[in-house]
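Folding problem:
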Amino acid sequence: MSRKEANRLKEYSPQIAGPGSSTFLSPRVLAALTFGLVVFALAAVVFGRFDLSLSDGAQGIPGAHNDHTFWWLVNYYGELPTWVVIGLAVFALGLSWTDTLRQKLGAYRPHLIYFLSTAALAPGIIGQGLKAIFNRPRPGDGLGFFPLFAVGPSGHDNSFPSGHTAMAFVLFALVFLIPETNRRLRVLAGGGFFLWGVAVGISRVVWGAHYPSDALFGAGISLAVEILLWAAVFRRRVAGAGPPSL
């Protein structure tokens, strides 16, 4: 291995703490994540009417339902950035198995599979599965308010959880693929993706498509899947791939 290649490997690998390390997903992190989800679930059940009052207040914001406003833009195009990245990831993954680009893109394969797995699981399998189970009516369905986790009468286009919000937070998975040595980029990207996800979630409530708990759970599902997939499956695979050959 040349000195240049050794330096590239040294710069790339610090994002992985090592085979025996559990610092990224320590027992404390797992306990905090579990505790937060339990507290939110209990609060959503006990204070369900607070969920309704927040939804009514958000929909009552002056100009909230006007076209060509900020909320209109975020509401209707909130999933678009994620779909663009998904399309690019699928295209790059396909090219990584071709003879001409196997060497250059092959090292990126674990990165691409991690991102696509997050998108398939969080807003896809888990999100759509919960929609089918709970059948929660949307605020504008005219079927009345159903608290979180109460099975509703709606049989289609269900409210819980917010798929748009879950899709928007899928972009946050890209932060895990940035080497820890590039802390500035990790902070900027993480902050930008998080704020975009929050904006999408708020826009869905403002527009009357979801209750606040729908948006919060959509965000939580994506973030939890990203953390668990990265720590349990892809962390070492990305490290084993080494620095991409450019």
The CA atoms of residues 139 and 214 lie 11 Å apart. The domain at 25-241 is CATH 1.20.144 (Vanadium-containing Chloroperoxidase; domain 1). The longest helix spans residues 212-241.
